[in-house]
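Minutes, project check-in

Agenda point 3 was the complex the collaborators sent over. CS summarized: three entities, 951 residues total, and the question is how they sit relative to each other. Sequences were read into the notes so everyone works from the same version.
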Amino acid sequence: MLPEIGQFLLVLSLLLATALTVLPMLGYARNNQTLMLTARPLSHVLFLTVMASFVMLVVLFIQQDFSVLYVAENSSLELPLRYRITAAWGAHEGSILMWVTVQALWISAVAKYSQSLSLSQISRVLSVLGFIALGFVAFVLFASNPFETIYPVPADGRDLNPLLQDFGMIMHPPLLYFGYVGLSVAFALSVAALIGGEINEQWIRWSRRWTNIAWAFLTMGIILGSWWAYYELGWGGWWFWDPVENASFLPWLAGTALIHVQAVSERKNAFRGWTVLLAIIAFSLCILGTFLVRSGSITSVHSFAADPFRGIFILVLLAIYSGGALTLYTFRANQLKSRDTLNLNSRETLLLANSLIFITATFTVLLGTLFPMIFEAVGKKISVGAPYFGLMFFVLMIPMAVLLPLGSQLKWHRDDMMAAVKQLLPYFILTTLLTLIVWFVFKPLNIRAIAGIYGGLWVLTATIGQWLKQPGRATAGFIGMSVAHIGVAVFLFAMSMTEHKDIEQDILMSPGVTKQVGGYDFTFLGVDRVKQENYQAQQGHVEVRRGDRLITTLNPQKRFYPKQQMPMTEAAIYVGWTKDIYVSLGEAVNKEGAWAVRIYIKPLIRWMWFGGILMLTGAIIGLFSARIKRQEDKQRDQVMAQQLNLS
Amino acid sequence: MTMRIIFIIISFIISGQVNAIEVYDFKNEQQRALYQELTEELRCLVCQNQNLADSDADLAKDLKDQVAEFVMNGQDKDTILAYMVQRYGDFVTYNPPLNTSTVVLWFSPFVVLLLGAGILIYNIRKKQS
Amino acid sequence: MKKIVITLIPLTLFVGLVTLLFLNMGFHNETVPSPLIGKPVPAFELPQLYEEGTMSEEDFLGEPWLLNVWGSWCPNCLYEHPVVTDLAQSGQLKVVGLNWKDEFENADAWLNRLGNPYHTILVDYKGNVAIDFGVYGAPESFLIDANGIIVHKIVGELTPDNVQNEILPKLAQLK
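CS then shared the predicted structure for the full assembly.
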């Protein structure tokens, strides 16, 4: 009964999404108030039906209803309750249903928190969002239905993929979806603006807040993904430049460009077309990423199941949404006239330069990810991996870091470039000194490490200095920007240390033997067996000492999940303030109990993710900008007054 | 062909995430570092986008043995990479070579950046009061 | 008009991108082409499974031959075995086996069970020669001409289809 209800709710959602697409837009075209007024209520009802169908799926998992194919494939009688709930979005079908749920939630939120927009604006925005929801609900119903039933009903399920039985992997997809879907708001605004041929400050200001939230979620999602890969995949890397990782990184890069350009275009009537285009690109990359992950057309270590039909379906969605938006852009972008003057010596120039660097980075990642495809088209094969992306990012992000403090130093509208550069001189000297000290302590360092450390310290000293010199009380906008930029600095510095000063050793260890790696003594105590609810494991014990002091005992595991016939390496990690000590277990080498063990010492790796958290914190602080708040209140009053006059 | 692809995917899922840790007795730290650099840059051909260092496939183990042997015999990075590329093609390295077919890959980002900078400055100048 | 040409650029790039993605869904495959095509067979000196003494690449000069890489552990070698047998029995060319990463007992049992179609079987249990040939999975087959030049490579099992449409036409060209 429940699967049928879930399915019925999805069909209902499809109809509601269709109504949301058609009615308000029709109302806008005919200037019919009644039709436009349907947009908000329809959005809320759509959210209720989609959410209800998602809840059905969770209930099916809790009840262990193996008559549902998706439940049978991703759960089992032994699976603990917490993973049964999260398995609802563990595999493809459920995760797309979750996407739709998040999309509907976001639409409902947009409907609620959009009082500063006029009815004609919000009805267009919601209609575009409804159209996006329509496509994805259709995708769930026709290409990845989680409510499909099987007969005969199996006695037990096939269990959840062990890689997904983990906190990081449970939170990673929803966070990314919040980010992807959040970017759809800026996209919808762009399309709505292009349809109407007009866009104004308040509209951009409104969408900027949604972009900030989306970008914060995206950042968190990527951090979690990186963290997960680091501790769960057992090879100690935090970023592999795998196509699936790139797929989540692309919207982030474009979103970063978008945030900075929105700061320009919410103040000035300039580069509005560029803002609109960036919003379209950012959301298009979300769909493109989904395509790359789900279609199987790229070779990735993370892609679990590929289905050409699903691939084609997403490609069609991409063609409709992005193709449609870009077609509109082609013919309407010139109507978004830029009237205001700009000056080369101003903060605006630097923000636009930032968007250029980040869009070039987006282009580079996209090119590197798709280049093997171009080669395949002519029957050849090539690999593009970490060495390429690493070098390219090094070259692109150096100017970014160099120019960043200049951007926050220069005033809006018009400033004296030479004076600004002079203001930065003390930070330049301080940075040089600090870098020399770091070099002296940690030498040898190669050129890339030094450049990264220099860049990090440069951004850090200048940002803190500018904050201290800030006259009067700092606004939320300024604090948000500074916190985010300190995040950039922390990331750059920590990443340079992690990448260039890490120690990796594969060694053979017999029980009782002590080996020294990176100034620590590792004593191997041997391996025993442990048994858990749904796996068995061999567990090693390694004592870590510095001098005479016992720092920790690490227990890396080699697990075996009998249901899925799947072995897994579970690394053991000691988390310190300045470094991680990471031990993972290889194979037993001989009968005397010697094992191959991999030991990593990763300096500052946590700080790298912490830098990311600072960046997203900055984006969130920016939301509370009082100036924006005041202006929004004023606009809302205006809109209200207009509506009163109309009625 | 489809069958083969499906087979590769299935075998990947079943194989799960297992560390392959090979232990070699290198003469010094430079050799160990070179070995690590090479096994991170070389691709495991039978895997789904993994480098040799991370892979536990049989072939990856053979290739790691081979790389370690060369490193211990004192061969340099370029020689070992050339050896691999000669046998498996450019696909085996994650660092694509620079030649006529990869010019676009290596240089178009800079063309985009410079072109963009030109357009940006031109547009701002035009709007300057 | 001129302005529309500029705003048309993103759409044009996008159409190109989607076209590439669409086409790729058709031609994407996991086979790595060999750089050894058109090059001489790598030098080797290998023992044989059943006969005494080693053989080198020079022993095969003078007529075209097919080197078939297999192992008793390899499931797809089982599928291609009848095809290899048919090809060898047709007498159109010498079919040589390369028993890769195997053990004598297993290989011997496998051949006793299924029959031995090979002219001779070279043995590479360490896998060094296979690396020289750029082998990355079994089965793989190399078509080599009378002068010891590698003409063609099939990755994966031999099928009636690729024997008919790839091996035999190439062989006919050699003669």
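Noted in discussion: The longest strand of chain A covers residues 520-531.
Follow-up: revisit at the next meeting once the mutant set is ready.
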